[in-house]
Known about the structure:
Layout: H1 12-19, H2 25-53, H3 57-67, H4 80-111, H5 132-156, H6 163-198
Helix pairs in contact: 2-3, 2-4, 4-5, 5-6
Amino acid sequence: MHDPVDSPKLRPLPNLIFMSRWLQLPLYLGLILAQCVYVFHFWVELVDLVGAAMGNQAALEHILNAVTVDGGVRPTKLNETTIMLVVLGLIDVVMISNLLIMVIVGGYETFVSRLGLEGHRDQPEWLSHVNASVLKTKLAMAIIGISSIHLLKTFINAASYPEMVVFQQTMIHVVFLLSAIAIAYTDRITSLTQAQIAHPPKH
């Protein structure tokens, strides 16, 4: 096992610039607080859904108000469509929460400091090879998943939306898809170029 190499001592100005990465720490701590808000919101919605299913009238009113679109028809009871819309809302919260985790853990590991999770049994699989390029691709895929949930909710409740709104949401989702494909293609080209530089073909 090799001894760790001492970090070279930086000059004052480069050291100041390098240490400025710690200014991002409050941002990641703020995202952790946002994660707490999402957890609280998830449990409030879940408790209301269970309460409505058990016959609680206040919980039922809250659920019906939550799934009603402005200008749309308000449901009168907890039916299959209403339950599906609420569950999709819960899934949406979970996916946004996953996105937050990727930004907090991956961003801190990439741009601030090492977390020292090597060998930890709960280390995320993707964190072992995370870099700015991988993180960008994973974030794009997470955003597509969130957009898909929103679009599915719109399709299920399509009668309550103007056709133009449905069309615009569909086009936005397509733009997200094309953006993710472009990001993945750009990263592939970059990886191939780096591999060719590192291992040039022999003539």
